[in-house]
From TrEMBL:
Gene3D superfamilies: Aldehyde Ferredoxin Oxidoreductase Protein, subunit A, domain 2, Aldehyde Ferredoxin Oxidoreductase Protein, subunit A, domain 3, Aldehyde ferredoxin oxidoreductase, N-terminal domain
The UniProt record lists the keyword Metal-binding: yes
Cofactor(s) needed for function: tungstopterin; [4Fe-4S] cluster
Designated name of the protein: Aldehyde ferredoxin oxidoreductase family protein
Keyword field: 4Fe-4S, Iron, Iron-sulfur, Metal-binding, Oxidoreductase
A GO MF term: metal ion binding
InterPro entries: Ald_Fedxn_OxRdtase_dom2, Ald_Fedxn_OxRdtase_dom3, Ald_Fedxn_OxRdtase_N, Ald_Fedxn_OxRdtase_N_sf, OxRdtase_Ald_Fedxn_C, Tungsten_al_ferr_oxy-like_C, W-dependent_AOR
Segments forming domain Aldehyde ferredoxin oxidoreductase N-terminal: 7-219
Family annotation (SUPFAM superfamilies): Aldehyde ferredoxin oxidoreductase, C-terminal domains, Aldehyde ferredoxin oxidoreductase, N-terminal domain
Similarity remark: Belongs to the AOR/FOR family.
Amino acid sequence: MDLPAVYGGESLHVRLDSGESDRESIDSADARRFLGGNGFAAKAVHDHVPADADPFDPENVVAFTVGPMNGTPFQSTSRGVVGFVSPQTNGFFDSTFGGTFPRAQKTTGFESVVLHGTAAELSYVLVDEDGAAVVPATDLAGLDTYETCAEVETRVAEDDGVDADDVHVVAAGPAGENLVRYACLLHDSEMREGVAGRGGAGAVLGSKNVKAVAVVEGSFRPEPADDGDLRDLVGGRMGPLMQETEMLQNYGTSGLVNPINEMGKLGRRNNRVEQASRERAEAISGERIREEYVTEDTTCANCAVACGKHVTVESEGVTDGKIPEFESLFGTATMTDVFDVERVMKANDLCDRLGMDTISWGVSVAFARECYDEGLLTDEDSPHLAFGDADGLVELARKTAHREGFGDRLAEGSFRLAAELDEEAERYLHGVKGLEFAAHSPRGLKGMSIGYATATRGGSHHDTRPTLQYEGEHAETTEGTPEFAARTQHFTALGDSLTQCRFVSEGGWGKRVTDRYRDAINAATGWELSTDEVERIGERIYNLERLINVERGVARRETDTLSHRVMHEPIPEGPSEGMYCPPDELDAMLDEYYAFRGWDDDGVPTAERLDALDMAGLAD
């Protein structure tokens, strides 16, 4: 079976300690089994990272992967995936990002660029279609993400005699160098920023003494098996896509603040309550930010939606910063009870520049503030721990990235901070498996209850999706909800392997695996997959992620749980008053979920199920 011409055909393995790299041909059977992107990232971690390796050990890898649709007419396949073992969860993690870097990587012909080992000194990795080089760059230490992207782009252009527009860089900031466990990566392009936000990719890169990865555009161009058919499919979805994404075009994801607050499902004050007053929500809403601060719309490559926005906040010295996403406004504003939008945007801009995940950082601050409220932390620990302290929020961003004072403890995340406090502190955690929850309520949305509990990544909304739940499906019922959660996990694994933007896929192609995805994949690859076979790809990838985590000892029934507040404290007021997920309800959903998946009672994939998914050789 030949590899379809939409694939570049090779993976590149970069040995950071020696500076050498080697090429590996992509097995056509693996392409059909795991597709690309998320699937290739999981395969790289499974094949190369020992089950007992610490996330900061040289044996961990950082895999940059793209998918079969990158560089084709298929809308918004401008995203890349970073796969690694997370320093937050100690399990498999993949984080996606947009911009132009993924499209540029595709042109090199390398579907995967996998970094192994540790560089002898602070360096950046330069990738072109001929291979890779590890370039010492100790003078980049301390630069922020934007500064690093600009400096590396200039150096590569000058040193290699290429056009600067052909150089695309993703970088860690000071937080990555300082091994802040939720340090992120940021890619700054001429079109818009892309952030690989969750899980700590920046910290893993920092542990490898790598400040940035630069890609020089190459000559590879994917060739769909039926380009005309693919273009017809794409053209037919443009109208529905633009109609369904109107809110994103106007406000980006920040437009979700008001509607989700009105549902009573927006966590506030470390999720003690799940609604703010209308006036407070409006103060940080996408509508207000658009009216008063947005300077331009920005977009990833090959995307008409332009959900990105730049903001300028003169009082804070922020010029054309990245607009805070809805998740960021949840983490840094409502959870910390700060509704000063200008200070919130300053804190978010600092997180982007210093290289920190705004969700985990914000929720960790909110956790610390509740611990302060309850007397578990005091002013001697930090003077910035009162709910509503906007100036303290900004100061804590700086201190966390540089591990100064209490910031050193915040840099470990809320779970490790809880472990060093009184056992009562665990009652105030808002997350699971070591990862702080995203903005979508595990009490107010039943699909998120079972979805978060079984998520490969922990408290991530990119496993089970909330979108259909906001439309009323499986939001307030457990009937059929475990199957719903599992099948949306297949959907997200598939989408991240195509590397299509989630907003575009849900808005234009369907919120479940549908015939449309089947037709597009077949037109691109020349395969003749059924819709069921397409969904099996997502299921196979999710099972591979679960296998990695089972082997690492972080995925069993006892870890498929939820935080104390979610299981024992109903939402106290508002439209969703009384909702929560008690332990017996979660246990019943887990039984149903495991049975649907063909896993055993402890949540381990069975040999029979793995064999049915053509995965028998991947289990220990």
